[in-house]
Amino acid sequence: MIKSELVQRIATANPHLYHRDVERIVNIIFDEIVDALARGDRVELRGFGAFTVKHRASRQGRNPRTGTTVSVAEKFVPFFKTGKELRDRLNKNGSGGDSRH
User: Fold this and answer.
1) Domain 3-91 classified CATH 1.10.260.40?
2) Per-residue confidence (pLDDT) for residue 96, from 0 to 100
3) How far is CA 62 from CA 52, 55, 82, 91, in A?
4) pTM here?
C-alpha cells in the first residue's frame, strides 16, 4: 500500500471528511513521526509497533565489484519493531497472513 491508497481508504471509510483533509492529517502524522525520530525520540504506537533510530558507526567496507576497501561514513538508520498485537494478527491460526508466496 502506498500513501495515496492509505488516504483513499481512510477517506472512503469516513465520507463525512473531505479527501484533502484526510490527506493533510496523514501527512501531519507522518511528519510528526519523522520529526520525533530526527530529534532522537522513540515513537510508539501501542499494538502496532515502535520506531527508533539506530546509530551505525563508521567502518571500512568493501566494494563488491572491485574488491577495494572503501570508507563508509557513520549514519543513523530508522528501525521498526512490531508490537505484539500486530505480530499476533499477522500470525493468527498459523496462516502467516499474506498468501501471495
Assistant:
1) no
2) 53
3) 28, 20, 32, 38
4) 0.75
